[in-house]
Amino acid sequence: MRAVLAAVLGVSVLAGCSSTGGKRAEERAQRAAEGRAAVNTPRWTVAMVTHSGDGDTFWDIVKGGAKQAAVKDNIKFLYANSDEGQQQAQLVQSYIDKKVDGLIVTLAKPDAMKDVVTKAVKAGIPVITVNSGAAESKKYGALTHIGQDESIAGEAVGEELDERGKKKALCVIHEQGNVGHEQRCAGAKKTFGGTMQNLYVDGTNMPDVQASIEAKLQTDKNIDSVVTLGAPFADAAVKAKQNANSKAEIDTFDLNPKVVSSLKAGTLGFAVDQQPYLQGYEAVDLLWLYRYNADVLGGGRPVLTGPQIITEKDADALAEYTKRSTR
Asked: Which strands make up the sheet holding 271-273, listed edge to edge?
């Protein structure tokens, strides 16, 4: 029976590919590949406002995904960022005043963003939250949240540390007040069988980050793992380990080409990938779907893009994607 069903499905697929619908799908794919819109819907405007500081390569990947989806969906894409909660809220307000057709926001500092996100929803502007703020997204009226559950991601780290036999870990928080960062470390503590301590550093000052980690490793030789919460900080932790003559394993959240090469070289133990490119791409695409067809994904729950534990064995397969800034 299964063989017959498979044969029928196979004929159906072949017939579909040779039909007008199949030809149209091929035409849409060709237009998208050429940097042209794959749809003929109105040119809606979508704005993204994140809590990123300047020069953060993670957000370049998110933005890259959003831009590619915008081309495909005939959308005018706008972007702004600030790592100050009040300033981020003001940027969102400026886009409300411009009457954009959709908003994508992060809620790393949800208290600062609550009023302005609620205002956007009341103004009839559909909002999707990405990356941070899964717990607040629905309460503020957003259509859905796209990203990883930070607590679950942290729990995955704690479990991985246990599997590696670690006993004492340091969780490096580079942005105070970021609820997602706190959730990551709290999640790791929840599942980790050893002890974990938070270390707060100034993420805008990389020499300070390195010095703070180095000092901690020098004073406590029992620390056998350092977990950083962003790819750029992993390299600083590796240098701190070397200067402190420590044997601690360095692990991190997020990917970039340096992290992948360090995984291959064995200077990093593992990384936690949340697929930032997918967060940007899906957010724009889902806003287009909502404007075009009133589609909503998630059923009231976040659409998860992670976590995925990446180790040395995964590095080769991901290298080309990190080089082109899509992972």
From this structure: 195-200, 168-173, 225-228, 249-253, 271-273, 308-310
How far is 25 from 27, CA to CA, in rounded Å? Answer: 5
Asked if 247 and 271 touch (Cβ cutoff 8 Å), the reply is no
Neighbour-count burial for 16-49, b at 16+ CB within 10 Å, e otherwise: eeeeeeeeeeeeeeebbeeeebbeeeeebbbbbb
Where residue 128 falls (left for φ over 0; alpha for ψ -120 to 50; beta otherwise) is beta
Say if residue 18's pLDDT is above 90: no
181 touches 154 (CB < 8 A): no
Tell me which amino acid residue 34 is. E
Q: To the nearest 10°, the Cα dihedral for 67, 71, 75, 76?
A: 60
Average model confidence (pLDDT) across the chain: 91
State yes or no: cis peptide before 42, omega within 30 of 0: no
Question: What is the model's pTM?
Answer: 0.83
pLDDT (tens digit per residue) in 138-197: 999 999 999 999 999 999 999 999 999 999 999 999 998 899 999 999 999 999 999 999
Q: Among all chains, which residue has been given the structure tokens 């950083």?
A: 228
Strand pairing class (308-310; 271-273): antiparallel
Phi and psi at residue 312, to the nearest 5°: -55, -35
Q: 280, exposed or middle or buried, with CB in 10 Å at 0-12, 13-18, 19+?
A: buried
Q: What is the DSSP annotation of 144-206?
A: EEEE--HHHHHHHHHHHHHHTT--EEEEEE-STT-HHHHHHHHHHHHH-SSEEEEEE--TT-H
**Whole-number Å distance between alpha carbons of 39 and 20:** 16
The rounded distance, in Å, linking the Cα atoms of 220 and 166 is 15
